[in-house]
Amino acid sequence: MKISINSLSMTYPNGKQALQDISLELESPSLVGLLGPNGAGKSTLMKLLVAGLTESAGTILADGAPLRKNETAYKRRLGYLPQSFGLYDELTVERFLEYMAALKGLHDQKKAVQAVLSDVNLEEKRRARIRTLSGGQRQRVGIAQALLGEPRFLIFDEPTVGLDPEERIHFRNLFSRAAQDKLVLLSTHIIEDVQSVCNRLIVIHHGRIRFSGTPQELIRMTRGHVCTFSERPEEDAALHITARVNTADGVQCRAVARTLPAYAQPAEPTLEDAYLYLIEEAET
Ligand SMILES: Nc1ncnc2c1ncn2[C@@H]1O[C@H](COP(=O)(O)OP(=O)(O)OP(=O)(O)O)[C@@H](O)[C@H]1O
């Protein structure tokens, strides 16, 4: 599947411009991470991609055809986990998923539900009412409904929120397996989620794309802008401190800066440093 986004802009009826002139090509197989601070425009982009909102300007093409032209056929090929997801609390996990499978028009609903229950490790909760589930288990039900029917394009808005570290690793691996032959787009605030599995990273800030490339490219761009040093009494406004650790030798700091001060030791950037530096630079 190939998604072509051309000069896409979105202004909400209240006048808030959430996206400005976005152009992107996304093609399967790929696992694309969408990063950006709160309010950057990630959810808006995802809602436009699932045809849940109408763009103010620009176009989105799926395999060369405008979304609206073949909307029903396009939606059949989609799996979507929105950021806030209304689950039917009184239904059991299994009934809810069968209901979603019916809405998706799947023929063998029982088989489809069994497959996704196993994918998300919720088989033993199949008969539990949704209201009795923990936050992480509810999130897994949300991921399960997105996976129903083997969609070609999976869109997950903050899928690992509420999951414990072990569950996050399980889902990262699941997304990575899905991306072997599908297009998977996931938004997250958790850098490790992106670092360990995404082959492409898109950073959005104030509705604009600030970076599109591999995580390694973003790290490479940040070389020469990361340093460590022992804390000094006076503050250096040109430095953006990303970590502060109390050690036996005093407080050790890590920072990003356009120009490193002479007293600091250069350090190899992590993806988190690179992301923070990009956002800091976009602010100035
Ligand atoms: N329905 C709406 N009406 C008006 N403004 C909106 C609406 N939805 C979102 N916005 C605004 O659009 C901007 C982008 O919001 P969006 O939810 O896309 O950001 P986000 O990157 O997903 O943020 P977060 O990480 O906090 O979920 C924000 O300023 C937000 O307040």
From TrEMBL:
GO terms for molecular function: ATP binding; ATP hydrolysis activity. PROSITE patterns: ABC_TRANSPORTER_1, ABC_TRANSPORTER_2. It holds the Pfam family ABC_tran. Transmembrane segments: none annotated. Keywords: ATP-binding, Nucleotide-binding, Transport. Residues 3-231 form the ABC transporter domain. PANTHER family: ABC TRANSPORTER, ATP-BINDING PROTEIN. This is ATP-binding cassette domain-containing protein.
